[in-house]
Specification:
Oligomer: single chain
Structural class: alpha+beta
Number of domains: 1
Largest sheet: 2 strands, antiparallel
Strand order of the largest sheet: 1-2
Mean pLDDT: 74
Low-confidence stretches: 97-108
Order of helices and strands: HHHEEH
Length: about 110
């Protein structure tokens, strides 16, 4: 997501008064991060056929993160062929570590 995509949204006064605005922006950004992370792991975009492909997606599973901007509902790509457990999202490992911090616990 870049500024040219966000500019029309930010300039709408109705959204600036919306308390969920920041939550929506963060949700959209994190969802795009997950999609890029999974494409990098699989070494292929959705529906792309390559010899280097490391597995296939099989739908999504819901996941909720508690953040400073509220609860964020994400759709996590499911990879059933990764039975060895090789894929772990950096997003969740970093976020869980941050939430275990005693001073930040109330914000997570």
């Amino acid at each position: 997501m870049n500024w040219s995509e966000l500019r029309p949204v930010v300039h709408r006064s109705a959204l600036l008064n919306d308390p969920d605005f920041l939550n929506q922006v963060v949700t959209r950004y994190l969802q795009q991060f997950l999609e890029a992370e999974i494409a990098s792991f699989l070494q292929a975009e959705p529906y792309q056929r390559t010899d280097d492909r490391r597995g296939y997606r099989n739908g999504y599973k819901p996941r909720i993160l508690k953040t400073r901007v509220g609860r964020i509902e994400l759709s996590i790509p499911s990879i059933p062929q990764d039975r060895e457990g090789r894929f772990h999202s950096e997003l969740f490992s970093r976020f869980q570590h941050a939430c275990k911090h005693p001073r930040r616990e109330s914000a997570c």
